[in-house]
Prior knowledge:
The protein is α/β, with parallel strands linked by helices. It has 15 helices and 14 strands.
Amino acid sequence: MKKLILIITTLIISVTLTGCGGYEELNNLSIVTAVAFDKTDDGYELSFLIANSPKAQTSSKEGEAKTTVYTGKGKTIAEASKDIEQIVPKQVYLGHINVVVISEDIAKDGFLKIADWLLRNPQTRKKFYLLQAKDEKAKNILKIVSPLESFPSQSIATLIESNSETKSIATSITYSNFISQILEKGYDPVLPSITINGSVKEGSNEKNLETTEPESYLVLGPLAIYKGDKLKGFSTEEESWAINVLKGDSKEINYNVKYQNENISIETSSLKSTIKIIDEKNIEITISGVGDIYNINNKIDIQDYKEINKIEKAWSSSLKKDLTKVIKKVQSKWQADIFGFGNLIYKNDPNTWEKLEKNWNSKYFPHLNIKVKTDLKIDATGSLLNTIKEDK
């Protein structure tokens, strides 16, 4: 919201300096902050989330919606856009889009079919977040209002930014990132998914802003797995953080280690993934990092170096097992090289890649021998000298 307020404030200042004519120009703009793409039986449905500007010489009325969703239909995206422009009373301005949501139907049909419209539009900055709608129409995602943000688009942006830094299930992907991964040789992309917890009707009601417990809200889901520009399926939440760790996109992870029949929680914000190409059949991934024990409920002397060493080994063994399991599923179920192994082969040995490229996903990638190695250390054991149980 702060970003959008700053944008509008900047526009107001700039037009104020040019006099009344400038204000009139601003007042005639419909600023689009988010876009949604859905499919119809014979074409496309395009939705714009537009920020409602204050009416000239009046103040905003109580209960007046701060945003409006306009929808248009057409056999092409361009036709659907023209359909919206015919019903929006002001000139549509796409220069401040910060979120684009695509439906499952659009994704399964192929993202590049709609990407051209976004690419060729001179107003769009190409740095907006891209999200995959899951179990819901993309346009409905734009309708959900949040008590924490006045604009749904900013609520979505804040959600993806905070979750990518703390939970590792989602990761922020911009339009430019996504397109570059599609066009890269030997690299299949992923997208964070988003869905609605509750009903669209309740979530789009302004009363949803007034309650201490919202009836409906947006939730980031597991990663959407693509092969090329087409959606192949969704991982689970557990698989999503593992994929992000392997790809080096995880900034922070909280991991539970089973030790002496109890769970020990280890927190790390320094995980690093290093991929080494041995040859076209063998890949080695090393996960390194330093973690802190921040939750322990059994009688373990966490000041004993030998005990800490045993916990480190348990951590390494458990993480290796989880990551290897996810790799094998990606290889067998989706056959999509979302880790970019093929891309590394291409960069290291273009001649070898030329021989493998045509059948990489179907023949070579599923049968790669991928070895996961770890270099994990526990740096701190918390501020207490003993666990709570030991102090009793």
